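hey so i finally got around to running both of the ones u sent me last week. sorry it took forever, my laptop kept dying halfway thru and i had to restart like 3 times lol. anyway pasting them below in the order u listed, first the sequence line then the structure token line for each. didnt double check formatting much so if smth looks off just lmk and ill redo it

first one:
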Amino acid sequence: MDWGLVLVLLLMGAFGGFSAGLLGIGGGMILVPFITMIFSARGFAPEVIVHMAIATSLGTILFTSMSSVRAHHLHGAVRWRIVALLSPGILLGSWIGPWIGKQMSSTVLALFFGLFISFSATQMLLGKKPSGGRELPGTVGMFAAGGLIGLLAGLVGAGGGFISIPFMGWCNVKIHNAVATSAALGFPIALAGTLSNIFYGWGVADLPPYSLGFIYLPALAVIATASVLFAPLGARTAHRLPVATLKKVFAVVLYCLAAYMLWKAFH
């Protein structure tokens, strides 16, 4: 890779890591469109570009989640019981998500990602408060919720915060606890999703050199390095700034990235 590309990937990783720590969204929603742009510019086979962008994004979350969750844990914000109850379903769902993605063409996958990121941006922009009285479901309900979170996260290459945070908010978990707990949930999502993308991408035609399944290792290494450095900064910022205001700014960014992925689906 040339130094210009390394610099771009470092900036992407810094922005993705900061947003992961700040909002608990894993950074994937931001990274996937940018990685797609870079892989397209480098002439990767169109049939695998979106699959590789999603897989590489999930791989970076392995490192980002460990970095950001430490900062949140030091603030005593992570609800570890919730992590324990959701993780079994998340591991299963995150393994299945990439398998479903493999059955889709890059066009369909880009369209699905664009629509889903638009939905998530709207959710973030509206910032609706949950009504009182709801509690977390029992073990079976938490397994089912974890399965859905993992399935969608594995499919779109994100950390799952776009579903887990609203779910926890709906169950009256405080927003800072929900963001911190979502950061911790990013690890089982990324672990199962990364292994699944390696397994289902193994031997696929037209993958570029230095690929491990659908994961492009050079991009993973550079982005993960920057993400790990900036995720704790985002986590600390989440406890100091009005996150509701920042979410509106990020929602606008997500709309722009969604527009690109929708354009990519038809070009």
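and the second one:
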Amino acid sequence: MRRIILLATIGLITCSCDQTSTSHTGSFSLKPIPGSITYGGQPRMKLTKSPIGSQVPHRFTDQWGDDVYETYIIQPDRSLRLVDRKIIERRF
């Protein structure tokens, strides 16, 4: 429970000063976390056979053992844009 409160507090602090607007509608971009495909930059391999605008799902376990589900969209320059993240906490 303490971890949830700590993460919520950190999320509120970073939400107000770390996110950048990506469109005129006021939506914000998600920042990659360790384990994300784009953490540390775009992947070296270009997705040349996938159609532009298609979704790429990605699932991994974060450093706390929680399951993370991310969704990326392929951009016209073949880079990936992170558009959704769901974190499912493991209960012990």
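quick thing i noticed on the 2nd:
The CA atoms of residues 48 and 78 lie 7 Å apart.
anyway thats it, ttyl
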